[in-house]
Specification:
Length: 130
């Protein structure tokens, strides 16, 4: 069976390849709609064409796993936790959490439980969008 780390590294490689294919199309869109001086900085709005992620931690137990990666996006480091479920000989991503920006992943803000992540240190952007 594929390990959670192998699965996630493969996912990140394929995602980056898809972004690389999208870049020429986005360049045409930005050229059409952006004015100066924004057009000079259009690359800032482009998805990365290189994998800039490092798997920091993987935990696996009874058909579920979580993997924390640190991605370099422009000048910022962002930590993401992927929640995985076993699927045949591989895995499927069943949830994606971001490190809480309010408490920096500590679960504490101003000496109290962080209200943004409810003290978990992580939040699910999909849940925030609902």
């Amino acid at each position: 069976m594929t390990t959670p780390q192998q699965f996630l590294e493969s996912f990140l490689q394929e995602k980056t390849a898809a972004w690389k294919e999208a870049r020429p199309h986005l360049t045409a869109v930005y050229t059409k709609y952006f004015g100066e001086p924004l057009l000079q900085h259009a690359d800032y709005f482009m998805p990365s064409d290189k994998v800039r992620a490092v798997v920091e931690d993987v935990r696996q137990s009874d058909g579920v796993a979580s993997a924390v990666i640190r991605e370099r996006i422009k000048s910022a480091g962002i930590r993401t936790r992927y929640r995985l479920a076993a699927s045949g000989e591989s895995w499927r991503i069943i949830g994606i959490d971001r490190e809480c920006v309010m408490c920096g992943g500590t679960g504490q803000s101003s000496g109290a439980r962080c209200e943004h992540c409810d003290g978990d240190g992580w939040h699910e952007p999909i849940r925030d969008a609902a």
